[in-house]
Write a structure and sequence with these properties.
Layout (H helix, E strand, L loop, with lengths): L1 E9 L3 H11 L4 H9 L5 H20 L7 E18 L5 E16 L33 H6 L17 H4 L1
Antiparallel strand pairs: 1-3, 2-3
Helix pairs in contact: 2-3
């Protein structure tokens, strides 16, 4: 069964939102929300809200198990464009288009078809190689002093001599 949720007049461009919606199509809802959470795109926040709403609709209205839901598709339609202008040189005006869009998320509890993309688990290395620990070089060990160049002592700061009590008077 397909369940839908809609968000209208979202203040993001349809083109940018379509890029984000393509990332999560076909994924389980939980994985899609993780992908969107770590996406650097600002449209990911709006699409995550719609997917959460569709999952909540499926659970509340149709008693479906949220863990079995996957994102069937996310439709992004362009909506009204808010038009503004900005003053330009020589008495002209430059157009500013503030685009909006309508988002529609469809979640389903059906099994994913074989041709849809599946997210693959990342293989982690079995052992983590620790960083080599270098002991601090001490002057007592001759091997350490032979390897490392000797540190020069800092020159003493030169100060004007303090006047004695006889000279001050």
């Amino acid at each position: 069964m397909e369940v839908v949720a809609t968000a209208k007049w979202v203040r993001t461009t349809a083109r940018k939102a379509r890029l984000v919606s393509a990332m999560v199509t076909g994924l389980p809802v939980a994985e899609a929300l993780v992908v969107l959470r770590y996406s650097p795109r600002s449209a990911a926040v709006d699409i995550a809200k719609v997917i959460k709403s569709a999952a909540a609709n499926a659970e509340h209205n149709y008693n479906l198990d949220v863990s079995s839901l996957r994102v069937a598709r996310v439709e992004v339609d362009g909506a009204m464009i808010i038009k503004r202008w900005r003053a330009k040189p020589r008495g002209m005006a430059g157009s500013i288009f503030k685009r909006t869009s309508h988002l529609r998320a469809f979640v389903t509890d059906d099994e994913a078809p074989a041709h849809l993309r599946q997210r693959k688990a990342v293989k982690m290395p079995r052992t983590v190689v620790p960083a080599p620990v270098v002991p601090p070089a001490t002057a007592a060990t001759p091997a350490a002093s032979a390897d490392a160049p000797a540190a020069r002592p800092r020159p003493a700061r030169r100060r004007a001599p303090k006047p004695t009590t006889e000279e001050a008077e």
